[in-house]
Amino acid sequence: MLGTFSEGIQEHGITESVSNNEIISLVPNPFVFQCKNCRVIVGDSFQWVTNNEKLNLITLQALTEIVEVSAILMISKSLEDPGSAFYVLSCKSCKTVLGRKYITTLCKLDSLRGLYSLDASSIESYQLGTSLQDGERPSLENLPTLSSLHLQQLKMEQVILSFNERITDLEEDLAMLEDLAF
Ligand SMILES: [Zn+2]
User: Fold this and answer.
1) Residue 12 pLDDT > 70, yes or no?
2) Which residues crowd ion ligand 1, with CB under 5 Å?
3) 94 alpha carbon to ligand 1 midpoint, in Å?
């Protein structure tokens, strides 16, 4: 699909600011997130929304069915999210507490509301394609840091901006061609 898009651009003689290979290298391999205690898979980076450094949370749009959402609404007394209401997320397999689903928050935590926030200290992760070697099992030690996930977000934004620029250029070219035709 990238190739077809790129060929379309080249047909119109538009200089590419980012090559397809560069785009592929900018898109990180996906991560799988696991319960740190029993290693069941609780989510993946396709669902990733944001990180919160202060609360040490990785926030995802959805989790696997192995994660249980508590029935009791809790109110936080922590200085980082005082008064916020949340449900506790835990691993159905081993009962480890994994994080929170915020229902109400302070304004500064709006981006977490209604989503599933995993405590980075309660999970392990594995990045697909990074640790497989002949005769070895995948390493589970390489939990992505919050800053590395933030870096990935910035790279993805760069890719999206690049595509946006290309589309804008194509639209301008098309408008010019239509003007010439009439
Ligand atoms: Zn578990």
Assistant:
1) no
2) 35, 37-38, 91, 93-94, 96
3) 4
